[in-house]
Structure prediction request, 430 residues.
Amino acid sequence: MARTKPLVSEPRDLHVMSRNRVQEQYERWVYPAPIADLEDYTQAGSIDGSAPKAHHLQYWPDGRYLGERSIDVLVAGCGSNAAARLAYTHPDARVVGIDVSSASLAHERYLKDKHSLENLTLHQLPLESIPSLRREFDFIDCIGVLHHLRDPEVGLRALGRVLRPDGVIAVMLYGRHGRAGVSMLQEVFRLLGTGQGEEDVAMARELASRLMPQHPATHLLEESGDMEFGAGVVDLLLHAQERTYDVGECLDLVERCGLRFQGWLEPFPYHPEGQLPRRLGVSRSICALSLQAQWKAMELIHGLMSAHSFYVCRVDRPEGQLVRWDRPEAMDFVPHPRVHRRESKTMPNGKEGGLIQRLPYGPIPLTSMQYQLFELADGQRTIRQIASLSGEGPRASSVDVARELFERLSRIGLVHCQVRAASTMAGSGG
Prediction:
């Protein structure tokens, strides 16, 4: 029997058609809003949330990025600014930016020329084709991109193929529950057959301004800043293609792509300590769950996580480069505090203690002994040395308290722990 002609195109053709829709959007509506001057941008305090300098001990807990070190960086889906920003703030890095939009890359080139960014190379290239460059990278930035691909798994697998053995990929995916209200509005515009013209943007703005305060999209429309310019409205409400993820789907995507989930960029809200007092029965019950189940529960309790930012590595990355609290050498980890506020005070129960806080999250109460141990953490001492210097001396109780404390604070992101090889610890002072 003769084969009949398929009613749909082959998958590769569907990928191209899908990519063209997204490309056409970003050719007309350049996103994000182009930055005019990188010096002004950085002096205003703006930073890249996934930048290696901000998260080096999360990405490389063995401290290999402490101090200046030249690394190869890929910004996958760089848009109008991201590659130039990273090249500007990481002058010793070799940065490659790729994007499907020539209009976005034109502004990247403007910033490259304006700031003489000799360490920046740009290519108009779909993310799925990155292996064609025949290069490998220490760090890959893929923020807000994979969820706009027809098949995000194909994209993440492509990035994994160009990642070095000790490299890291930073990913941001839209959150399903926190973005539910936006998804509802997007469905309205699909029912209306809305396009991406000026009239469509005006209509989207009009509808957004008439929402009830209780609508689940209201908080995101007010906080995102995208409603202030046309390209932002299109990206937020009229996008040609996107999907959302819950915690479990993020983890499943990483596993299917043959990569290892390493951690959340800001882990605080994914743990009970970030939202629930430890004395509550429900908090104790959640803490008894597996770590992944805790993350899933806290996403549902939070309700407003509009995005999930995390970082992954290769499955064959050496264990010695990762923070593993089940290893005997965990007592030789070096905690680096990440708190904005700390104060010693009398707690509500009348006992001495203290509070530590990383903005914008709530304070974490510590007992007097825990607070004393935390005060000894200076980014130089190991947990073992901190325990020995406490008022309790090197007793088993202080060692156990120190280990539990810094494991908990590491888990919620109030310290980053540096892994040190045993040879580097010999003879180190307190």
Notes: Residues 11-28 form the longest helix (18 residues). The first strand starts at residue 72 and ends at 76.
